[in-house]
Write a structure and sequence with these properties.
alpha+beta; Alpha-Beta Plaits; 45% helix; 10% strand; globular
C-alpha cells in the first residue's frame, strides 16, 4: 500500500511525534536523553530550524518546530540517523529503533500552537511521572523559566506579551489549565518507568538491589519479576538489562 502524503503546514510549524518500535524505550538512561538533546541542538544550528517545545518520554518524544530551510522529513531523518547510530553503539544493539515514519500535524494558528505546546509539556503529568510540569527534567518547560538554550522561547512568549515577566506568568497560567483534547489521535500517553524508578521500587519493596537479582533464589526472582511485569511502563528488555536475567527467563514467569 502506498504511503499517504504528509500534510504540509502553511506556517511551516509542525507538532511531531516519534515512537519506539514495538513500543520499546528509545531512552534508557540519562546519557540517552542528553545525547538526543545535543543532536537536536546541533542540527538546529546547522539547518537553522526553530524549535518551540520538546518532551522526551521513555518510549516516545514530541517536538514543536518550524522547519525553516529544510522540510521536516530531512530534518527528522538527519536527527534520527545520528541518534539511532549512537544509541545502537551505546547499547550494543542493531536494527531499527523508531516505529516507522514519524507522525506530524500542521500548526497554523496561535491558538492551536499554544494548545499543542501545553499538551506537549503536560505529557509527564498525564503519564503520572511527576506532579508538577517543572519537575520533569526532559522537557522544554524549564527553558521558558530561563533554564536551557535549545528552544526559541521568545517566539512563544511574544504571543502573550512584550513584557517578558508578564509573558512568563501568562505562560505558566496556560499550563495550569487542563486540556482534554487529543492531538494526532493520541489521548493519554502510557506511563514509562525510568531505570531509577524501577530500581527504587525493588529496593523499597524487597530490600534487594535489582542488579544483584541474578544472585537471589529463584523463588524471590520470580516474585520480583512478576511484581514488575504487572507494573505499567516496564518492558521485558528494560527489566532484562537492569537485572541481568534473560528476556526469555523473564517472559516465562507467570
Amino acid at each position: 500500500m502506498a504511503r499517504t502524503g504528509r500534510k504540509k503546514s502553511a506556517s511551516g510549524i509542525y507538532h511531531i511525534m516519534v515512537r519506539g518500535i514495538n513500543k520499546q524505550n528509545i531512552f534508557l538512561q540519562e546519557e540517552d536523553y542528553l545525547k538526543y538533546l545535543n543532536i537536536l541542538g546541533d542540527y538546529k544550528n546547522e539547518i537553522a530550524f526553530d524549535l518551540y517545545a520538546y518532551c522526551l518520554m521513555g518510549n516516545h518524544l514530541h517536538l514543536l518546530l518550524n522547519e525553516g530551510n529544510e522540510d521536516i522529513s530531512n530534518i527528522m531523518k538527519r536527527i534520527g540517523v545520528s541518534y539511532v547510530s549512537w544509541f545502537n553503539w551505546q547499547h550494543n544493539r542493531n536494527g531499527h529503533l523508531f516505529q516507522g515514519r514519524f507522525r506530524s500535524e500542521p500548526v497554523e494558528n496561535d491558538k492551536y500552537l499554544l494548545a499543542v505546546l501545553r499538551y506537549i509539556h503536560q505529557n509527564p503529568i498525564k503519564a503520572g511521572m511527576v506532579k508538577s510540569i517543572g519537575d520533569y527534567e526532559w522537557s522544554s518547560y524549564r527553558e521558558y523559566m530561563g533554564q536551557g538554550e535549545i528552544v526559541n522561547t521568545e517566539y512563544i512568549l511574544g504571543t502573550f506579551s512584550k513584557d517578558r515577566k508578564k509573558a512568563v506568568q501568562m505562560f505558566q497560567d496556560l499550563h495550569k489549565r487542563e486540556d482534554e483534547n487529543t492531538y494526532m489521535g493520541v489521548a493519554k500517553e502510557k506511563k514509562s518507568l525510568s531505570d531509577g524508578e524501577i530500581r527504587e521500587l525493588v529496593l523499597k519493596n524487597y530490600k534487594v538491589s535489582l542488579i544483584d537479582l541474578v544472585k537471589e533464589k529463584k523463588e524471590l526472582q520470580d516474585e520480583i519479576i512478576l511484581y514488575l511485569k504487572k507494573k505499567e511502563g516496564v518492558s521485558l528488555r528494560q527489566l532484562s538489562r537492569l537485572s541481568g536475567l534473560t528476556v526469555h527467563r523473564i517472559y516465562k514467569v507467570e
